[in-house]
Amino acid sequence: DSDLSMRTLSTPSPALIFPPNSPGFQNGRGSSTSSSSITGETVAMVHSPPPTRLTHPLIRLASRQEKEQAHVDRLPDHSVLHIFSFLPTNQLCRCARVCRRWYNLAWDPRLWRTIRLTGDTIHVDRALRVLTRRLCQDTPNVCLMLETVVVSGCRRLTDRGLYTIAQCCPELRRLEVSGCYNISNEAVFDVVSLCPNLEHLDVSGCSKVTCISLTREASIKLSPLHGKQISIRYLDMTDCFVLEDEGLHTIAAHCTQLTHLYLRRCVRITDEGLRYLMIYCTSIKELSVSDCRFVSDFGLREIAKLESRLRYLSIAHCGRVTDVGVRYIAKYCGKLRYLNARGCEGITDHGVEYLAKNCTKLKSLDIGKCPLLSDTGLEFLALNCFNLKRLSLKSCESITGQGLQIVAANCFDLQMLNVQDCEVSVDALRFVKRHCKRCIIEHTNPAFF
């Protein structure tokens, strides 16, 4: 019985989550936990729960007085559980060290649907191993309740940590490992192969990740329908610099249910990769290819095949995009709500006119740093896009106060206007403020405040 008690009532130390030099761990004071520092790393420790009885009479007397003064002890279990549900992973581990009652409540499986770890110094591989081991005690080797793992910015995360997640968390639905540049394709393949319910995957900044696919074993087992087995709907591969058209082809063939895809600064992607994407992923609602310098009007012609399903598009700083590409989007994607075309210097008033007349439900438009735009383009926007809430005209040198006044007189719901580095008068800015009372104006005119 005693062995069983020690097995089921052990808790990871908060030192697993906090580095040794963080508040509450300096000089070993402020906490009853122990940790070891080896070359600056935080070492995972496992401790037994707080004792139920204290032998020294003075200590026992003090604990009784404190217990009488602690109003929190009068709360029923369901109230404490509700409070604990708002705490992050590290604080839950701390609460488990307070007393036996808090220990049992802190490790309630309902509180462990999410693990969230952050920091450069934490030994995240070991932390994941210890936490999943503790959560697997009631259901050996399987964490049935864990659905979300967020370890963004934990640069010490390696493939071992992802292997732990893949093997122990079959019900995982959301995984965020942005900025963890040590993980590779193989570990990501294991996660998507062993976690069939995974819907949200963020690998932004993981420079070694070049595609998303099933492992070879999983592909053989699920053949010939393995291409439709990955249920990912949200995929963020921002700053995955090594991603190429062939990798995007693999992603599209395996992740056919994608609705949100972000490829910001994937500088090797071309129009050919977008063609592959449109063949397989016909349900995309949000797409970003900003700073993909090889994407041109031909790529936008492929994107336009999404038609009315497309609601969000970012082509910022795609220097090869002109009015021709914008016309494709405007003609076929009439339900577009958000367009970021900042830095597309080939866009003129003619492109904005076609966009305004066909995408009348636009709510957010960024056409900053487009030097060929003038008040004429703004007039078309004002007379057609009455629902416009956010408009950025930063560094549009041909814009004047007259164009802004036309916009303000027609778009009463405008909430954000960026006219930084634009030659507009104070009177024009005051006119906008008077007609769009909820509008926040970003400007560089020192006379307007």
Automatic annotation (TrEMBL):
SMART domains: FBOX, LRR_CC. This is F-box/LRR-repeat protein 7. It is found in: Cytoplasm, Cytoskeleton, Microtubule organizing center, Centrosome. Part of the SCF (SKP1-CUL1-F-box) E3 ubiquitin-protein ligase complex SCF(FBXL7) composed of CUL1, SKP1, RBX1 and FBXL7. Interacts with AURKA; interaction takes place during mitosis but not in interphase. Interacts with BIRC5; this interaction allows BIRC5 to be polyubiquitinated by the SCF(FBXL7) E3 ubiquitin-protein ligase complex. Substrate recognition component of a SCF (SKP1-CUL1-F-box protein) E3 ubiquitin-protein ligase complex. During mitosis, it mediates the ubiquitination and subsequent proteasomal degradation of AURKA, causing mitotic arrest. It also regulates mitochondrial function by mediating the ubiquitination and proteasomal degradation of the apoptosis inhibitor BIRC5. Residues 1-13 have a biased composition (Polar residues). The gene is Fbxl7. One of its GO terms (cellular component) is SCF ubiquitin ligase complex.
